[in-house]
Amino acid sequence: MVKKFVFDFGEVDIYENYAVGVINEGEVFKRDQVLTLYQYSLEAFGKKPFGYISNRLNSYSLDPRIYSVTKMAPNLVAIAIVVKSPAQKMSAAVEKMFFDKPFKYFESFEKAKAWMDHQIANHTASFQSA
Questions:
Q1: Beta-strand (E) ranges in 1-130?
Q2: Which one-letter DSSP state was computed for residue 25?
Q3: What InterPro entries does its record include (predicted)?
Q4: Would you list the domain boundaries of the chain?
Q5: pTM of the full structure
Q6: Distance CA 78, CA 111 (A)
Q7: What is the pLDDT of residues 31-58, one digit of tens each?
Q8: Any bridge partners for residue 82, and if so which?
Q9: In degrees rounded to 5, what are phi and psi of residue 37?
Q10: Angle in degrees, CA 62, 106, 80, rounded to 5
Q11: CA–CA separation, 17 vs 1, rounded Å?
């Protein structure tokens, strides 16, 4: 881990190529909070391609329309969600409809991380060959 940011709604760990977010139990995750994450992502990654892993350790709600904010981050190449329950799987399936880049859910953090590493590597390779 390179940096850790703690917010009133949760925390985000920044690694070399991706961020891992854990949102607080019972939180209603809103557009303003996504904008906050975006600002910190700009600081951490600049224009470098990066991914976001949502580690859903807690139960919280969000409006999937918040994914419209991700259009402000063209270097966000993929989102992975680590789910712990069937309800979280269903929520992730709905959220996927609102994000037009690679998006996948996993039952383990290690699988999500491996997939994200692959997404970043593929994006970086195709970006460099263009």
A1: 3-7, 10-14, 18-23, 28-29, 50-55, 61-62, 76-82, 103-106
A2: T
A3: STAS_dom_sf
A4: 3-129
A5: 0.90
A6: 14
A7: 899 889 888 888 899 989 999 999 999 9
A8: 55, 106
A9: -60, -40
A10: 55
A11: 10
